[in-house]
């Protein structure tokens, strides 16, 4: 009887914990911080994240109902009315992106994440307990990809 040795690669896609499923994509590389955003408003918004030096880190158009997650840095989130030209549309609102340690009530330590909701053009931070539904919706999106 012959025997063979097979090499196997196991890819961790998600871990189920008592508090819910944590997807591998929710754990940022190199200790960075994630921002999970949802546009609950009836209109499209242009979300721009700036670091504390004022440099643009992320720019994304959010359609009504859209959810997305990306790496953020301490600084500021700005919501603009989308513009057809290269010039920014009207500034609708701003919201600080704190350091992890400075506003721990809004920081989800387990997922290394801050949560943001846009309602009628106004950006606000959510506490992790307020973001349970948002995390669940994001988890559903991630599991389909």
Task: Please describe what this structure looks like.
It is built from 1 helix and 11 strands; from the N terminus they run E-E-E-E-E-E-E-E-E-E-E-H. It has one helix at 132-144; strands at residues 14-17, 20-23, 33-39, 45-51, 56-62, 67-72, 75-80, 91-97, 107-108, 113-119, 122-126. The longest helix is centred in the C-terminal third of the chain and has 13 residues, at 132-144. Strands 3, 6, 9, 10 and 11 form a 5-stranded mixed sheet that branches. A 4-stranded antiparallel sheet has the order 5-4-7-8, with no helix packed on it. The chain has one domain. It has 145 residues and is mostly beta strands.
Largest sheet: 5 strands, mixed
Number of spatially distinct domains: 1
Q: Roughly how much helix do the residues carry, as a percent range? A: under 10%
Number of helices: 1
From the N-terminal CA to the C-terminal CA, the straight-line distance is 42 Å
**What value does the Rg take, in angstroms?**
18 Å
> Could you tell me the number of beta strands?
11
Q: Tell me the β content.
A: 35-45%
Series of secondary-structure elements, N-terminal to C-terminal: EEEEEEEEEEEH
Helices and strands, with pairings:
Blueprint: E1 14-17, E2 20-23, E3 33-39, E4 45-51, E5 56-62, E6 67-72, E7 75-80, E8 91-97, E9 107-108, E10 113-119, E11 122-126, H1 132-144
Parallel strand pairs: 3-10
Antiparallel strand pairs: 1-2, 3-6, 4-5, 4-7, 7-8, 9-10, 10-11
């Amino acid at each position: 009887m012959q025997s063979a040795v097979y090499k196997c690669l196991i890819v961790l896609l998600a871990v189920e914990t008592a508090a819910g499923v944590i997807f591998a994509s929710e754990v940022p590389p190199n200790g960075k911080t994630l921002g999970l955003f949802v546009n609950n408003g009836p209109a499209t918004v242009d979300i721009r994240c700036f670091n504390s030096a004022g440099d643009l880190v992320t720019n994304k158009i959010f359609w009504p109902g859209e959810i997305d997650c990306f790496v953020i840095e301490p600084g500021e989130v700005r919501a603009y009315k989308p513009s057809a030209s290269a010039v920014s549309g009207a500034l609708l609102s701003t919201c600080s992106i704190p350091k992890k340690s400075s506003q721990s009530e809004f920081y989800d330590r387990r997922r290394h994440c801050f949560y943001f909701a846009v309602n009628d053009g106004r950006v606000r931070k959510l506490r992790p307990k307020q973001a349970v539904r948002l995390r669940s919706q994001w988890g559903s999106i991630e599991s389909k990809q």
